[in-house]
Design a protein that fits this description.
The chain is 44% helix and 16% strand. By secondary structure, it is of the alpha/beta class. The protein is elongated and about 125 Å long.
Length: 604
C-alpha cells in the first residue's frame, strides 16, 4: 500500500475520501441539538431574548391596545418577586432583586414593542444590550449553575440506586451549599444507614465524584433516612489560623476548630476526660496547642502538664502551666499529688454534704494534660495507677485527665480503666481501621467513623455526648509565635490552687503502724465514730482555751490530731456556724470567748 501510494504521488494523483454515504446534515443537526440541550440552562438569557422578538411582533400586530395590561402584569410580577420571591426558592435578597429587575426590564421592553413594534429603533439595540448585561450575573452565579448540575445528576438516581445496592431508595430533597451539595435520601424497606456507608465507594463512582468526597450521616428522627453530602471543594484544604481564645471559663464549651459546613467545633471539657489519638504528624500537637490556648485564658482552671519528650510540646506553655513534668519520676510525683488533691477535695465535699466541686477562680478546676500517654507505661508504670484513680474518681471534684497518644491500645493504656472513662474522643488520621476503633470505640469504623481516610494534618473526627454522628473537622493552627505571645499574655492571670488542695498537698503521707489488735477496742464504723468524736472534742477544747490572739494551726493540729485538710474544713464549718472565729491569718479561737476580751479601743 505504501508503494502504491508513492507511485500515485509520482503520477500526481491525490487520494480523496468517499463521503457519499455520510449524512453530514443529520450529524450536524444532532450535534447542535445535543450542545443546546446540555447547555440549555446557560443559554436561557439568549433564548428569552430571541423569543421576545416574535412575542413583541404578535402583540404589536394583533393586540396593540393591550400595552397597559402588559405594563400592569410586569409591575405586579416584579413586585411579587421582590417581596415574596422566597416562596419560589429565591432564598437570598440579591436573587430576589435580580429576578425583579430582569422581569421589569423584559416587561418594559415588551410594553414598548407592543406600542412601537419590536424592530423599531432603538428597541433591537436595547434588547441586545439588556440581554448581555443581565446575562452576566446569570452566567456567573455559581449556586444556580451548581443547582442545575446537581438536579441533572440526581435525576439519574433511579438508575444509580440498583447499581450500588440501594434499589428502591429515592431522593427527597437537595440543597447546594458553598462546598458542594447535600441530599436527603429515603431508604427502601429493610435498608439501613450502615448499608449505605458500606457502599460509599460505589456511590462516589456512580455520582462521578472524587475519591473521599461522599459523606453519609444518619437522620436522628428516622432510621430509614440519611443525609448524603458531596464535598466538591474541600473547605479544609488549607490550614485555618487560630482566631484566639473562645472561652473565659471552663464552664463554656471550647472551640477546637471548624466543621466542613463552616460551623465551629465546640466541646465542653468541664468534668469530662478526653482522649486524643492519631499517627505522628496527624495533628495531635495542634489540638494540644488549641486546648492550651483556651485553657490559659480561663481564670478558673489550673493546668498540670506531663511531656515525656523532655518538654518539646508543653514547655512553650510553661508560663501558663502551674506544674510540668518532663521525666518519668516527675510524672509519677505529679500524678501522685493529683490523687492527693482529689482525696482532699473529696473529703471536703463529704464533710459539707456536697456532691460536686464547682470551679471558680478561688477554687479552680484541675486539668492534667499528658502528651504521649503511652510512654508512661514503659517509663513510669507506677504512675498508671494514679492516672486510673483520677479517671475513675476525678469527675466530681473537677479533676480532668486529657491524654494524647498515637495508638491507645490496651497495652498503651496500661491495662487500666483510663480509656473507658474518656467521654471525649478525638481521632486524627490513623493507618489501620482497627486504630479508629481503638480511639473512638469498638465498632465505630463500621458505623462510618473512617479516621483512616483523613487526608491532611489537623483533620479529625470527634465523638462526644453532643456529637454522636461522624463529622469531619479541622483544628486551628497556632504557630510558634502565636504560642509564645498567648503564653505571655495569660501568664499573669493564672490562678493558684485553693486552700483545700494546698493543704492536701502539704499533708504528710500517713504511715501505718502495725500494732497488736486489742479485742476490747471498738472496731470498724464504731471505732471511726469514736475517733472522730474525740478529735471534735479536742478541737473544741483547744479553741475554747485559746488566748486572745488565737491558737495557731500547728497548735490545733497537735491538739485535735486531725489532718491539715480536715482541720481546715472543720474550721470553715465552725466559722459558718458562728462557733469559731479567725482572729488573724492562721490563728483561731472560740467565738464564745469573744465577750471575755474587751475591744481593742476600750482597752486602750
Amino acid at each position: 500500500m505504501r508503494r502504491k501510494a508513492r507511485r500515485m504521488r509520482r503520477l500526481g494523483v491525490q487520494p480523496i475520501a468517499d463521503v457519499s454515504d455520510v449524512e453530514f446534515a443529520e450529524l450536524i443537526t444532532s450535534g447542535i441539538a445535543r450542545f443546546l440541550w446540555r447547555y440549555r440552562s446557560e443559554a436561557t438569557p439568549i433564548t428569552i431574548a430571541v423569543l421576545s422578538v416574535p412575542a413583541g411582533m404578535v402583540l404589536h400586530r394583533w393586540y396593540p391596545a393591550w400595552w397597559p395590561a402588559v405594563a400592569l402584569v410586569t409591575a405586579t410580577m416584579a413586585g411579587a418577586l421582590a417581596i415574596a420571591g422566597r416562596w419560589v426558592n429565591l432564598t437570598r435578597a440579591i436573587e430576589r432583586g435580580y429576578a425583579a429587575i430582569t422581569t421589569a426590564v423584559l416587561g418594559g421592553w415588551l410594553t414598548a414593542a407592543t406600542i412601537m413594534g419590536p424592530l423599531s429603533n432603538p428597541l433591537p439595540a436595547v434588547l441586545t444590550l439588556g440581554c448581555l448585561v443581565l446575562a452576566v450575573p446569570w452566567w456567573a452565579h455559581r449556586r444556580r449553575r451548581a443547582r442545575v448540575r446537581v438536579e441533572r445528576t440526581l435525576a439519574a438516581w433511579p438508575e444509580i440506586s440498583p447499581a450500588i445496592g440501594l434499589a428502591g431508595s429515592r431522593i427527597q430533597s437537595a440543597i447546594v451549599d458553598l462546598w458542594g451539595y447535600r441530599t436527603r435520601i429515603a431508604l427502601a424497606r429493610g435498608q439501613t444507614v450502615e448499608d449505605a456507608i458500606a457502599r460509599i465507594p460505589g456511590i462516589e463512582s456512580a455520582l462521578g465524584t472524587r475519591r473521599g468526597a461522599v459523606r453519609i450521616q444518619p437522620v436522628p428522627e428516622k432510621a430509614n433516612r440519611l443525609e448524603l453530602r458531596v464535598i466538591e471543594t474541600d473547605p479544609h484544604a488549607d490550614a485555618i489560623s487560630w482566631p484566639g481564645p473562645s472561652v473565659s471559663t471552663i464552664r463554656d464549651p471550647i472551640e477546637l476548630g471548624v466543621f466542613e459546613d463552616g460551623s465551629p467545633v465546640r466541646v465542653s471539657f468541664k468534668r469530662r476526660h478526653a482522649l486524643v489519638g492519631g499517627v505522628a504528624g496527624a495533628g495531635k500537637s495542634g489540638a494540644v496547642n488549641v486546648l492550651m490556648g483556651n485553657l490559659s485564658a480561663c481564670p478558673d482552671v489550673i493546668v498540670w502538664g506531663i511531656d515525656l519528650k523532655r518538654g518539646m510540646e508543653l514547655l512553650p506553655w510553661q508560663a501558663c502551666l502551674d506544674r510540668v513534668a518532663v521525666t518519668p519520676k516527675e510524672a509519677t510525683a505529679l500524678l501522685r499529688d493529683a490523687v492527693r488533691v482529689l482525696d482532699g477535695r473529696a473529703d471536703m465535699l463529704a464533710m459539707r454534704g456536697l456532691r460536686v466541686w464547682d470551679p471558680a477562680p478561688d477554687a479552680p478546676a484541675l486539668i492534667i494534660l499528658i502528651d504521649e500517654y503511652a510512654e508512661l507505661v514503659d517509663d513510669a508504670p507506677e504512675a498508671i495507677g494514679y492516672a486510673d484513680s483520677i479517671a475513675r474518681r476525678g469527675r466530681a471534684v473537677a479533676e480532668t485527665l486529657i491524654a494524647a497518644t498515637q495508638r491507645p491500645s490496651q497495652k498503651a493504656m496500661g491495662n487500666s480503666a483510663v480509656r473507658s472513662q474518656m467521654d471525649i474522643r478525638i481521632s486524627f488520621r490513623v493507618r489501620e481501621r482497627r486504630d479508629a476503633d481503638l480511639i473512638l470505640g469498638a465498632g465505630m469504623h463500621k458505623a462510618g467513623w473512617h479516621a483512616d481516610k483523613l487526608d491532611a494534618p489537623g483533620k479529625f473526627l470527634l465523638s462526644a455526648p453532643e456529637f454522636d454522628i461522624p463529622r469531619r473537622g479541622r483544628t486551628y493552627l497556632l504557630n510558634d509565635d502565636t504560642v509564645q505571645w498567648t503564653a505571655i499574655q495569660h501568664a499573669d492571670r493564672r490562678p493558684v490552687l485553693d486552700v483545700i488542695s494546698l493543704a492536701a498537698l502539704h499533708e504528710p503521707p500517713c504511715e501505718r503502724e502495725e500494732t497488736a489488735e486489742d479485742p476490747h477496742q471498738p472496731r470498724g464504723r464504731h471505732a471511726r465514730q469514736a475517733a472522730s468524736q474525740a478529735a471534735e472534742d479536742a478541737l473544741s477544747a483547744a479553741l475554747r482555751d485559746a488566748p486572745r490572739e488565737g491558737a495557731s494551726i500547728g497548735d490545733l493540729l497537735e491538739a485535735a490530731s486531725m489532718s491539715r485538710p480536715t482541720l481546715y474544713r472543720r474550721l470553715a464549718q465552725l466559722e459558718d456556724q458562728g462557733i469559731a472565729v479567725q482572729v488573724s491569718r492562721g490563728r483561731w479561737r472560740s467565738a464564745a470567748t469573744d465577750a471575755e476580751y474587751p475591744a481593742l479601743g476600750d482597752e486602750e
